[in-house]
Amino acid sequence: MVAGGAGYIGSHVALLLADRGYEPVIYDNMSSGHAWAVHGDLIKGDICDRPLLSAVLDDTKPVAIMHFAGKILVAESMERPELYFANNVSGSIALLELALERGIPVIFSSSAAVYGTPERVPIAEDAPLRPESVYGETKLVIERVLDWYARLRGLRYVSLRYFNAAGASPSGRLGELHRPETHLIPLCLHAVMGLREKLVVFGDDYPTPDGTCVRDYIHVDDLAEAHILALEWLLSGGESRVYNLGSEKGYSNFEVIRAVGRVVGRDVPWDMGKRRPGDPPALLASSERIRSELGWRPRYGLDEMIGHAWNFLMAHETLVRKLYSGE
Question: Which one, 78, 200, 287, 316, has the greatest CB density within 10 A?
Fold first, then answer.
């Protein structure tokens, strides 16, 4: 079962599962997912709907659950924390309890937001966990629930802490379409397409080489591959694990803007804005643990992430323009 499998990362994982011979069942309330992104049998439902979720698990009998069904907007989480605690915490606990009752292992979509502003980079999994947003706090709460359920009741899980997911399926079958969009690479591409007047860069006075924030970008298909490895680990009897997923290479906002211009051949129009509260100067992953234990290796670099994302937008330009025009 892929909970949240109609969303950006969940749909890419479901597609790879299908390509690898698995039979993904997509469970999604479609509040932010897309029907065209679904690969597998779709069951429309909410993780907070425990009776429906229980019935679906009994009917489909999945060998594992991949849990992507969470709200992800940091700013919204600070404005409407109740939504994030209801869905990301209460809904997730309902899902975990049902999985535990049936002995189903879980792969959890976590986030680098659990770290907050790091003391040092690259960030290893044993770094202090000090989230600075409600979103990050909800991810950390569920990681703690997973740990206690594992210790007390035998739940087996893998928690994957993503850094900045980017890109699109190299085949062009899937890509990133959020509304509202908050991720830097698609925002740059939307500005190039004229879907927004200009990109806003939030601050140029950080203690980084060019003054703008530095982030670790990882291709969405590389993330999907890590989920397959985590699944195979659990199905082979592996113990619970927590892993970072990042490229271990950081790029500043200005470096990304220049890379977009280089890859698509058109400059990104941008304006300078003020810093956003809670934006750490630099987030850079150490992914040594998953590389050494599961043999995971990212395949794609920044230019390929941008190129795949641009190819997807160009191949689906009519759909993209309808979405952002409000139709």
Answer: 287
